[in-house]
């Protein structure tokens, strides 16, 4: 289906703030968390059904919505002025008002066709830029928005925001600011707070080539992306199964993360090493989970503090036995819980981290990346972010989707529209994915790429 659908660019414009950024704000300093963020774009898609007036021509209504979005984005950039600038060097955004990119595109199908069986490759075409191209992300606009117009009158808004400026919380704040601007609701406008660099001093990374993030292993084999959906009832059953004295009330994310981790361990072990008796050898592995620091520091950071204010909890697993059937889900949940508590304790020690500690963590990560004897997984959760509340003037989105970067060993978790189920976008190399997606324990809880219902 994807090969038959065309996404044709109708118009491409540069959107700038209505007035110049004041001279004293021209150089926006990046924190060392921003510096160490991968040079990619954070991608998000919001899908809206046909919202045209029954008595109005669809094309006219669509054009009005696009114009409304572009004008309100101009005003929003007044508050998020660094997004109209460009990255300069390793530690500064030059707020030169060069602008964000606003793209309007036509899609030769109805929205329902996309939602029938969402395809990762197709979804990437709804973005204005390849979010994995680090070369472009270093010189291109920090924000690109693509408005995708379907034949049925539906719309998909594609966001690409530089990871050097934003984490998921910052993206959520930006969308909140934009929607409030659309409704002229100044009382609901949560303006951004800058200045993370004063808490997390920049490092001199000019002579350091950061490792790939995450490591691009097995480049000879194609990376596959699959979408798995876990309904609320299945997640509740899984939570009950994995509860233990160590973690008596596992969260949705902990339970689902542990299940996916276990199935990835099994797939990796079966595909990469077998002994003479034909049983699989379990490879050691780690799963790293980016976590919002704002609520975990002492004192807590403001919810509207922008930047990459995340830390990583890293859970380790190794097993001396020879059978993958011996992997205990309760044990994996406990390890994930322990890693999270360690991360929280680290964040609570002090808000202002010195550069020595930052370098130490950087070196630990580099050493981990270089260790080929350990499987490395990243599982990031966007659950509980209010993306389904994003109303630009024609209702809330019918579906919100992450857009997977085709890089090995990444999993992204997102809420279903009901706020209780979870959608998991999983990346693995082709051979491992064939084993992973046929795992009976996984399929007892998750459905492989079902139709989006709303």
Write the layout of secondary structure elements.
Layout: E1 7-15, E2 27-29, H1 32-35, E3 41-48, H2 58-79, E4 86-88, E5 92-94, E6 100-107, H3 111-116, H4 120-124, H5 134-137, E7 143-150, E8 155-162, H6 168-182, E9 223-230, H7 232-242, H8 252-272, E10 285-292, E11 310-317, H9 329-349, H10 355-370, E12 375-381, E13 399-402, E14 410-415, E15 422-429, H11 430-436, H12 440-443, E16 447-448
Parallel strand pairs: 6-7, 10-12, 12-14
Antiparallel strand pairs: 1-6, 2-5, 3-8, 3-13, 4-5, 7-8, 9-15, 9-16, 10-11, 14-15
Helix pairs in contact: 2-6, 7-8, 8-9, 8-11
GO molecular function: acyltransferase activity
Family: Belongs to the plant acyltransferase family.
Protein name: Vinorine synthase-like
What does this structure look like?
The chain folds into 2 domains: 2-198, Chloramphenicol Acetyltransferase, CATH 3.30.559; 223-448, 2-Layer Sandwich (Chloramphenicol Acetyltransferase). The chain is 30% helix and 22% strand. It contains 12 helices and 16 strands. The strands form 3 sheets. Strands 11-10-12-14-15-9-16 form a 7-stranded mixed beta sheet. It has a 6-stranded mixed beta sheet with strand order 1-6-7-8-3-13, with helices on one face. Strands 2-5-4 form a 3-stranded antiparallel beta sheet, with no helix packed on it. Helix 8 (252-272) packs across helix 11 (430-436). It is globular and about 65 Å long. The model is unreliable at 211-218 (pLDDT under 50).
- Helices and strands, in order, run as EEHEHEEEHHHEEHEHHEEHHEEEEHHE
- Report the C-alpha radius of gyration, rounded: 22 Å
Going across the major beta sheet, what is the strand order? 11-10-12-14-15-9-16
Query: Which shape, going by the Cα principal axes?
Result: globular
The secondary structure category is alpha+beta
SS elements, strand count: 16
